[in-house]
Design a protein that fits this description.
Blueprint: H1 4-21, H2 28-61, H3 70-95, H4 104-120, H5 122-125, H6 129-149, E1 155-161, E2 164-171, E3 174-179, E4 182-188, H7 206-214, E5 220-224, E6 240-245, H8 248-257, H9 260-263, E7 267-272, H10 275-280, E8 287-292, H11 307-315, E9 317-326, H12 335-345, E10 348-354, E11 367-373, H13 376-386, E12 389-390
Parallel strand pairs: 5-6, 5-8, 6-7, 8-9
Antiparallel strand pairs: 1-2, 2-3, 3-4, 9-11, 10-11, 10-12
Helix pairs in contact: 1-2, 3-4, 4-6, 7-13
Length: 414
C-alpha cells in the first residue's frame, strides 16, 4: 500500500494529467477551474460513498432477529424509499415552487432523516426532550436561513419545477435569466435598448457574425430552445421565427419578465414540447436557418445531437439553409462529435470559439458555435469573411452519435 501522502500526490497528478490531456484550446484559467471542479467532484463522490456505507450499516444493524418480522422490515424499507422519492420528486417542486434555494431538497431530506431518528430512538431520547426540542428548533432555523439565502441579491423571481430552478435577476442595469447557475439570456433594463441582443447572442458574438454574413436572405428561422427570447432580437419585418421550447414555464417567464418576443418586428410563434418531436410534426415547415440553443452548461440533450436528429433537421431546412448550434459547455467539447456527424452525412461544417470576455453590451461572452449545412459555399462565407475554422473530423477520437449509441468520453474537455 502507498503511504497516504503518496496517494494524494498520485491523485493530484492524475487530475492534472486529465485536465491537460482534455484541455484542447482552453485557457489556463479555465483549466485551473476545471481541475478544482474535478477535486470537488472527487470529494462529493467520497462523501456520498461514506454516508451510504454509514446508512447501510445502520440499516443492517436494525435487521430483526425473527424471520417473521422480516416482511415488515423490508416493507418499511420500501415505504421509506417511496416516501423519499415522493418528497424530493413531487412535494419539494410543488410546495417550494417559488423558493430558489438549491439546497431545499437536502433540507427536506435532512428533516425527514431527523424525524426518523427521533421516532426510532424516542425511548432513549425522552429523558432529554428539552434538548431534542431545542435541536429541532435550531434545525428549523437553519433550514429557513438556507431557504432565504437561496435568493441572491437582485433576484426578482424564482421558480422550481421538474427541470430545475429558474431565477430572474436584476443587476448593473440588465436583467438575466438563470437555470441553476447557467445564464440563459440577458436584456437591458433601459427601455430604449431592450431589443439589443446580449451575452452569447450579441452582434459581435459568433452568432452575430453568422447572421451578418448569411442572414440577409433569411425569411424563416426555427429556434430550438427559447431561454429569455434573446434570439428574437434578430427578427426583421417580414421574417417568421418559430421557437420550440421544452418547458412551458420558460415560455411564461420569457413573456412575463422579458420583452424580446414582444418587441421583435418578426412574426413570432412559441411552441412547447420536445424540439425534435415538434420539428418532426411541423409538416411542410422549411427554414433558412435552424438554430439549436437547447444545451446548458452541465447537461446535453443527446437526442438532439444524433445523426437521426440531424436527418429531421435537414428535412426542415432549405437547400442552402444553415444549422447553427450553440454548444458552449463546461465539461464537454462537442465540436469533434459534430464534425464526425457532418462527415458521415456529407455536410460542410465550421466552428468558432470566442474566448474573450468583455462588457455585456458588447456581447463578448465566451461561447462556442458550430455551423453545418449542405452548401459548402454558404459555410465558406463564415470561414472567409468571419474567421471561422473548417470543422474536420480527421484527427478526432470522436464518432458521430446515434439514437442507439452515444459516448461522452471522446467529448470530455477538462
Amino acid at each position: 500500500m502507498l503511504p497516504q501522502r503518496l496517494r494524494f500526490q498520485a491523485l493530484a497528478f492524475i487530475g492534472s494529467f486529465l485536465a491537460f490531456w482534455f484541455s484542447q484550446d482552453s485557457t489556463p484559467a479555465q483549466i485551473l477551474r476545471r481541475m478544482l471542479d474535478l477535486g470537488k467532484f472527487a470529494y462529493m463522490l467520497f462523501a456520498l460513498f461514506a454516508l451510504s456505507m454509514i446508512f447501510h450499516k445502520s440499516l443492517a444493524s436494525a435487521r430483526p432477529a425473527s424471520e417473521r418480522a422480516m416482511a415488515e422490515y423490508y416493507s418499511w424499507i420500501a415505504a421509506g424509499g417511496l416516501f423519499g422519492s415522493v418528497l424530493v420528486g413531487l412535494a419539494v417542486p410543488l410546495l417550494g415552487r417559488h423558493i430558489g434555494a438549491v439546497a431545499l431538497d437536502w433540507v427536506a431530506v435532512g428533516a425527514l432523516a431527523f424525524a426518523a431518528i427521533l421516532a426510532r430512538d424516542w425511548e432513549q431520547i425522552s429523558p432529554y426532550r428539552k434538548t431534542a426540542a431545542g435541536l429541532a428548533a435550531l434545525a428549523l432555523c437553519v433550514a429557513w436561513a438556507v431557504a432565504s439565502a437561496g435568493s441572491r441579491s437582485g433576484t426578482v423571481y424564482n421558480l422550481r419545477n421538474f427541470y430545475g430552478i429558474y431565477s430572474v435577476r436584476d443587476q448593473d442595469g440588465v436583467r438575466s435569466l438563470f437555470h441553476g447557475n447557467t445564464e440563459h439570456g440577458v436584456q437591458f433594463l433601459e427601455p430604449a435598448r431592450q431589443n439589443e441582443p446580449l451575452s452569447y447572442y450579441g452582434f459581435s458574438s459568433p452568432l452575430g457574425e453568422a447572421a451578418d454574413a448569411l442572414g440577409s436572405g433569411w425569411r424563416s428561422v426555427g429556434v430550438v430552445g427559447l431561454g429569455a427570447g434573446s434570439l428574437a432580437a434578430y427578427g426583421r419585418r417580414g421574417m417568421a421565427m418559430d421557437f420550440y421550447e421544452l418547458d412551458p414555464d420558460v415560455a411564461a417567464i420569457a413573456r412575463r419578465w422579458f420583452t424580446h418576443l414582444r418587441l421583435s418586428p418578426a412574426t413570432i410563434r412559441v411552441m412547447t414540447g420536445d424540439g425534435r418531436l415538434s420539428l418532426e410534426r411541423a409538416g411542410g415547415a422549411s427554414y433558412d436557418a435552424l438554430i439549436l440553443d437547447a444545451f446548458s452548461s452541465g447537461a446535453v440533450p443527446i437526442h438532439l445531437l444524433t445523426k437521426d436528429a440531424f436527418a429531421v433537421y435537414l428535412s426542415r431546412l432549405a437547400p442552402d439553409g444553415v444549422i447553427l448550434l450553440h454548444v458552449s459547455n463546461r465539461y464537454l467539447d462537442l465540436r469533434p462529435v459534430l464534425a464526425a456527424t457532418a462527415r458521415d452525412l456529407g455536410l460542410s461544417a465550421a466552428a468558432k470559439r470566442q474566448l474573450s470576455a468583455g462588457p455585456v453590451e458588447e456581447g463578448q461572452v465566451p461561447s462556442v458555435w458550430v455551423a453545418i449545412g449542405r452548401d459548402a459555399a454558404t459555410i465558406g462565407k463564415l470561414v472567409e469573411k468571419k474567421g471561422w475554422r473548417v470543422l474536420g473530423a480527421g484527427a478526432s477520437r470522436a464518432t458521430a452519435w446515434t439514437d442507439r449509441h452515444a459516448s461522452l468520453l471522446p467529448a470530455l474537455s477538462f
